[in-house]
Each structure stands twice: as C-alpha cells, then as structure tokens.
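Summary for the steering committee. One of the milestones for this cycle was to obtain a three-dimensional model of the protein with flavin-adenine dinucleotide bound, which we needed before selecting residues for the alanine scan. The sequence and ligand used are listed below.
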Amino acid sequence: MLCSDGPAELTHEQRQQLSNWGVQLREEKIARLEYQDDKLTGIVFTNNEVLPRRGILLRPPSYQHSHLATKLGCKFGSNDIVQVDESKQTSIPGLYAVGDVSSPYSQIAVAVAIGTLAAVAINHTLTEENLVQLR
Ligand SMILES: Cc1cc2nc3c(=O)[nH]c(=O)nc-3n(C[C@H](O)[C@H](O)[C@H](O)COP(=O)(O)OP(=O)(O)OC[C@H]3O[C@@H](n4cnc5c(N)ncnc54)[C@H](O)[C@@H]3O)c2cc1C
C-alpha cells in the first residue's frame, strides 16, 4: 500500500508498475495517524476512513535546520541543499559544506565520505597557498 497524502506525482508507467507489483495507491489526504499504547493502529484519511496499519515507512521532507548557510549567502540547489562543487566548496570561495547540509542521501557513510573529500581538497588548497608564499 502506498499512501501519497494527496495526488501522487507519478507517471502512467510508474502507476502501472505499482499495479503490476500489487501495490495499491491511496491518494486521499491523510488527517492523522491513530495509535494505542504508543503503537500504530491505523492511518486516518480526511474523509474519516481508517486504514488499519501496524507499521509504516515514511519519507519525510528535509530542510535546513540552521540558517547559517543562508546568512553566509550560499547558493542552494534542489531540495534545499547547499550547492557545492566537486571539492565540496560552496559558492563562496573558501567555504566548504559537508554531510546532510549539502547531500540528499542522509546517510552517515556518505556524510563521512564527503567530509573526507572536503578535507583532502582543503589540504590541497592550503598546501598550494603555502607553496605560493614560499616562492
Ligand atoms: C531518525 C533518523 C534516523 C537515521 N538513521 C540512519 C541510519 O540508520 N543510517 C545512516 O547511515 N544514517 C541515518 N540517518 C542519517 C544520519 O543521521 C545523517 O546522514 C548524518 O547524521 C549526517 O551527519 P552530519 O554531520 O551531516 O549532520 P548531523 O549529524 O545532523 O550533525 C550536525 C550537527 O550540527 C549541529 N548544529 C546545527 N545547527 C547548528 C548551529 N547553528 N550551531 C552549532 N551547531 C549546530 C547539530 O546539533 C548537529 O549536532 C538518520 C537520520 C535520522 C534523522
């Protein structure tokens, strides 16, 4: 069962695929979740219909918790993510962004990997600057 909480932005092909997999699509708006003793019992649609359920998987929207990147004037890409180049530098020279703030994946392994790439890039830049000063 897939509940889209309003009209699902799916193509005809995607709808067909869900149907082929036996996944029912419910596009009604969701009013609330029902639970008893801290356990989920169902999904309540705005027409008051209750869909009994013991578990759900959510895809919550992500947004920037801190306004720091906005205040600093960073450019943003899609999904409210700070735009970075290959070296993880933001649109502001010398300012790097790593982890969830600049990645859509929300995975620890990805955040760590991006941090490592940024560290390598920063080290490279600082080394180059030192070499220029030594000349
Ligand atoms: C409920 C949940 C479950 C998850 N489960 C998994 C999982 O099973 N496996 C997995 O790989 N990933 C999981 N993730 C994603 C994972 O937690 C993130 O991808 C990872 O923590 C990103 O690391 P980060 O350093 O970018 O950000 P964060 O870990 O969010 O660290 C950012 C830090 O900055 C601090 N901060 C924010 N604003 C300011 C400010 N203005 N001043 C000072 N400090 C500030 C915050 O308090 C926080 O400590 C889950 C996330 C959530 C929310």
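Key point for the committee: The chain has a mean pLDDT of 94.
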